[in-house]
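Batch job 17 of 40 flagged for manual review because the log was empty.
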Amino acid sequence: MSRTVARFFICALILIGVTGCAGMGGTARDNDRLLNAIVMDDAGYVKSAVQAGGVSPDQRIAAEAYPDGAPLIAIAARAASLNVLRVLISSGADLNARTPVNETPLMLASFFFDESQQSTGRAFERHERAVRLLAEAGADLENSRYQYTPLAYAAYQGNERVVRFLIERGARVNADAERGGTYINTPLMMAAMQGHEPIVRTLLRAGADADVRVYGGHTAAEFAAKYNHKTLAQLLQCAQRQYGTGGFGPQCRQLLGSSLRSPLAG
């Protein structure tokens, strides 16, 4: 029996102080070893730790962004550690386990990207695969009421492929908005703030309501204007029912395009 296997075997048998076994999450050093294994996508280490019983699939550990602890699956989703995600999912980890600021694993996978791949055009690739993995395993497409959603995070970050995927899976394009008002920014507002015109158009085609206003705050068009996305602000004004193509004439028809219906049509 190898020394590594022997250590896991002992950890599995000793019930008192089991989490103190080296590499099993009981000390700061153990925490760092487990965290490093997740970030580096060392699925073998994580799988052995879970199978030995020293680490729970739903365990929370401290990480740089989460000093008070975050679920292993959330850390893996943020890092797009695909093999570790598969281990945790197959081990029964809570797919919707939240960080201390109420982010789900699907939200984190929808938002983050690989900075080292920005110049190659593949920055979102692994995280998109993480999104698909989580969604296909049954992760909730939404969040608790009055909280940001995976779609809102993807829209803000400009992850167009994930935006389309989540919409196709049934994510609500208007989130919790009701009767023209919302307590939290809608996906359309998030895209407008960042000036992501293709995503704005995708959301509008999917039924996003440009008339929605944050209570005491802005509409998507006003957010776009606030952040100096002037053309996008005009497009969103054209998409509002209170203005419509009648208010802007040919200018609105040009901005909306033939594939984007006027809010007054039909």
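Reviewer: the log was empty due to a logging misconfiguration, but the result itself is present. Strands lie at 60-63, 66-71, 181-182, 213-214. Unflagging and moving on to job 18.
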